[in-house]
Amino acid sequence: MTIVPVMWAVWGAFVLFTAAMFIYRSSLTKNEEDQIFLDDSFNHERSAQAAIIAKVNKVQPLLRTGMILVAVASVFVVGYYIYDVFNQFK
């Protein structure tokens, strides 16, 4: 078994995970408001916005990790093919 299908499968899994995290984060932030509520009568809005931000902050480390994994896997894929090109010209 060659490494190429495994390499592409791992890269694809990382990309799918990262895309899923982006989609989940965007679904969380679609109800986020860009307003500051100064009046005490808007405490329910303030608490709803705080809950949204808390969920987004929990997802953010997973998203960063996914982006780093995709970048590392992409560098590995490109490096493999550069190495393969140099080996074919020997």
Word description of this protein:
The chain is mainly alpha-helical and 90 residues long. The protein has one domain. The protein contains two helices and no strands. Helix 1 runs antiparallel to helix 2 (43-88). The longest helix is centred in the C-terminal third of the chain and has 46 residues, at 43-88. The radius of gyration is 21 Å and the shape is rod-shaped.
Coarse morphology: rod-shaped
Number of strands: 0
What is the overall number of helices? 2
Largest sheet features: none
* Average residue-wise pLDDT: 88
What letter string, H or E per element, gives the SSE order?
HH
Radius of gyration: 21 Å
Structural class: mainly alpha
Beta content: under 5%
Distance between the termini: 24 Å
Q: pLDDT below 50 for ≥5 consecutive residues: which ranges? A: none
Domain unit count: 1
Helix content: over 70%
Give a short summary of the structure.
By secondary structure, the chain is an all-alpha fold.
Topology:
Blueprint (H helix, E strand, L loop, with lengths): L2 H27 L13 H46 L2
List keywords for this structure.
2 helices
